[in-house]
Amino acid sequence: MDCVVTGGNVKVLAKAIHSLSRIGDELYVEPQDDGLALRSVNSSRSAYACFLFAPLFFSRYTIPSTHTFLCKMAIKSVQAVFRSLASLEKTVEKCHIKTDEQKNRLTFTLHCKHGLLKTHNLSYQDSESLQAVFDKDSCANVFRAQPRLLVDTVMHFPPSLEEVTVSVSSERMWIRNHVDEEADQSKAMLTELCLASDEFDHFVVQAHNSVTFCLKELRGLLLFAESTGLPVSMHFDAPGSPVVLSVTDSVLEGNFVLATLSDDPNHRGAITPPPPPPDDFMNDDIDSYLIAMDTSIAPEPSATGPPTPQLANSTCTKQPAAANHRRRLHSEEEEEEEDETADSDKPPNKKFCSLFFGSVLPSTSQMSTQPITSQEVLASDSEDDT
Amino acid sequence: MPLSTQSQADDEQYVLVASLDNARNLSNILKAITFKDHAIFSATPNGLKVTVEESKCLQANAFIQAEIFQEYTIQEDLVGFQVNLTVLLDCLNIFGGSTVPGVSTALRMCYKGYGYPLTLFLEEGGVVTVCKINTQEPEEPIDFEFCSTNVTNKVILQSESLKEAFSELDMTSEVLQITMSPNQPYFRLSTFGNSGNAHYDYPKDSDMMELFKCNTTQTNRYKMSLLKPSTKALALSCKVSVRTDSRGILSLQYMVRNDDGQICFVEYYCCPDQEGEEE
């Protein structure tokens, strides 16, 4: 890969990386024919974000024609390249991104004012493709707003707040802080904001639902949207199915897919719940809370890891997630889970998930006796065997 | 002015008397070298030199010329003492170190001689505070024998461009490598951190480069932890001169402009990291 970003686009790229850093610790870089994809997923796999920069975003964009290149690297080290966003705009004239596959290095060269040249050689790891399975076009509720509206709304919530609940009617949207059901309701402070439909650029509600999702990632996206001035779209269906936040421009697209808290299964709309996962909580049913992640091994000639069953049965599926498709993924996931047990780098999914979905999970003492039916499996995932 | 009402008779007992209308002109420059508590003060008729050292590898000197002071009298050719720098700075900021224009703390610093405390008279808004700081036996500062005839490479840069680089340096790197060369990359700062390496290259014809005099290619590594205190001086300065001698000892000279537009100098000497070299 060899690409050049100039002028104001350098800042856009930097902002995208900063906003991805709100999601996860690793940045997945994948130069594709349709542009450079930068992705990140959080450790509990409940949030995923992807920016796709079209070839036109770059003043030069060349990708390896012979093979697919995919890598992941610590997002902190990439952030360090674009450390001071303030000076970036004033000083950086050009950013050159180049891969050195012999040395497993991604080189960022910033050409700054006064001839100053900043070169960062960052080491990367080979990785599999990271792709969330989501279909925002099939969502019943679709909104689009100027970033200012959402920034002003989110501003009222304390930084410590983890989740917000968004409820909609045909005329209005309510956003309030989510209070854990286990928390003492009498002591909790509730903050609720109501936005009228005319404050939005686009407001379509087909299902009067409430969804609860993490605020941190929304804030991350707003960081990007505000600096680029791009309107933010929001797509969601029912509780338990992901909310998709996106920004789109002629040369870039950003999608943030966030898991939402699952509700009572009776309230489910069109989505068919998968069969209840096995009772054993410690096994892998916690993964059923995970957001849709579809991974596939890139056809790399120099794949370092030993071949695993994923190669055979985990094919890339980017089509809308259908219920049966999810079931299939779920079974794969169990196999993959076993493969991963030796992987010490695996993030501590279970703990975080149980926190994140604390309000829908039975207390741990009941955990092993109650089958959990309200969760749906959207994803399978596997880490690189490195 | 309560400070000027001191009787002349009193003054005669002091071997050193130095007054400043604005104590910040002294405290600011002392901050640039504050990384250890003990500071060696050497006063000569030319002015005051304050030295702070670390691990016999790093030395910082602040020079405040006699002209900076509104009054500067010295009875001997050399007056030396050692005080706790942190305490001295606390005293100089005893009125809160206000940065409001027009409000300043006046200072009169007196020293009677060996065994006596350093006495500070500080006045702001008609209130006078007298601070006495016990002095210690002055140590002999290390002589790095850095002499301009042995300088192999020298560049003078506008501090602005180095500030940016230093603020972004990868602090996970143990060393900062400085390359100076008559050929490319001319002047390069490199770090080797957890996530990879980074280089900052300054071309010799950059607007930021005031002087470029490199005779031989020299690459030396300096401990990041030793260089870190120098960023305080960098932050205050407007220009910096980077020199290395034939032994690889680094000299960083910072030109600092004070509130009144006068110029003072701060100098850092740092020994190269010997690891990885033949010796």
Can you describe what's shown?
The complex is a heterodimer of chains A (386) and B (279). By secondary structure, chain A is α+β, with helices and mostly antiparallel strands. Chain A folds into three domains: 2-130, Proliferating Cell Nuclear Antigen (Box), CATH 3.70.10.10; 144-267, Proliferating Cell Nuclear Antigen; 285-367, no CATH class. Helices cover 22% and strands 30% of the residues of chain A. In chain A, helix 1 (8-20) packs antiparallel against helix 5 (215-228). The longest helix of chain A has 18 residues, at 323-340. The two termini of chain A are 23 Å apart. The relative contact order of chain A is 0.15. Residues 265-289 and 295-386 of chain A have low confidence and may be disordered. By secondary structure, chain B is an alpha+beta fold. Chain B contains six helices and 18 strands. In chain B, the strands form three sheets. In chain B, strands 6-2-3-4-18-17-16-10-14 form a nine-stranded antiparallel β-sheet. In chain B, a hairpin with a 2-residue loop joins strand 8 (118-124) and strand 9 (127-133). The model of chain B has no long low-confidence stretch (mean pLDDT 90). Chain A: It is found in: Nucleus. Chain A: Belongs to the rad9 family. Chain A: It holds the Pfam family Rad9. Chain A: Residues 297-386 are annotated as: Disordered.
